[in-house]
Amino acid sequence: MTGDQVQESRRNMLGDALAIASYALPVGMVYGLLTLQAHFSLADVVVTCMVALAGGAQFAAAGLVKDHAPWVAIAGVTLLVNARHLLYSASIAPYTVGRSRRERAVMAHFLTDETFALALAHFRRIGQFDARGYWIAAAAIFFPWTIGGAVGYLAAGAVDTTRLGLDVAFPAAMAGLSLGMVSGRRDAAAAIGAVAVAVPVGLLSGPSVGLVAGAVIGPIFGLAIPAGPAIDATRSAAEQGLP
């Protein structure tokens, strides 16, 4: 892989990263609004965005705090929501085998849904690890998310998130980004299975429970499918940037 090809892939990723940043800011503001209802302080909002850095888990935890749920329940739900990161790290691990344990530990902290989607697509295109590309992906969510959380907290009460549709921006954007990563029968089965589980569970028990159920059970559908060729069989593994 030449330097020019890596640069081209970075430019492609930067365009997607800017799109992610454009919705991470308003969705971060929605989180800030929710934390005010949970009686967080501004420092609490900023620290959770920087230290937890897990959108779905942060929303779930803030909602449970608002409802005065016990800490054991909050910790359990957070753990369940973040369980998908085990799959994320397993997918990226083959590209980071040559990196130090310290570097991988720092990278793991910033491995959000968006960072994973952007970085993995970039690594697949170039067929190797790219530290600068990874941190571009991480910055695209870290800074607007943290800034958005603080701004939303300070501007609480001035924005009707339901009327503006900001409450659906996060799942809609991630759904669109994830579709571009489906490259084989297993990926397709996992995506379809996740939707098949999330929709009915969400209708019965609420959107948050549905999303968690789909995220946890969906990959099982993919693992049940025998490995096969990618959907676009005319392209070789090297052309797809696969290791």
If you had to describe this structure to a student in words, what would you say it looks like?
This protein is an all-alpha fold. The chain folds into 2 domains: 3-161, no CATH class; 182-243, no CATH class. Helix content is 73%, strand content 0%. The chain is built from 12 helices and no strands. The protein has helices at residues 3-37, 42-52, 55-66, 71-81, 84-92, 101-109, 113-126, 131-154, 161-164, 169-179, 185-205, 207-223. It is globular, with a radius of gyration of 18 Å. The two termini are 12 Å apart. Residues 229-243 have low confidence and may be disordered.
Keywords:
243 residues, mainly alpha, 2 domains, 12 helices
Topology:
Layout (H helix, E strand, L loop, with lengths): L2 H35 L4 H11 L2 H12 L4 H11 L2 H9 L8 H9 L3 H14 L4 H24 L6 H4 L4 H11 L5 H21 L1 H17 L20
Helix pairs in contact: 1-3, 1-7, 1-8, 2-8, 3-4, 5-7, 7-8, 11-12
Give the helix level as a range of percent.
over 70%
Distance between the termini: 12 Å
Count of β-strands: 0
Series of secondary-structure elements, N-terminal to C-terminal: HHHHHHHHHHHH
Short description:
This protein has 243 residues and is mainly alpha-helical. 73% of the residues lie in helices and 0% in strands.
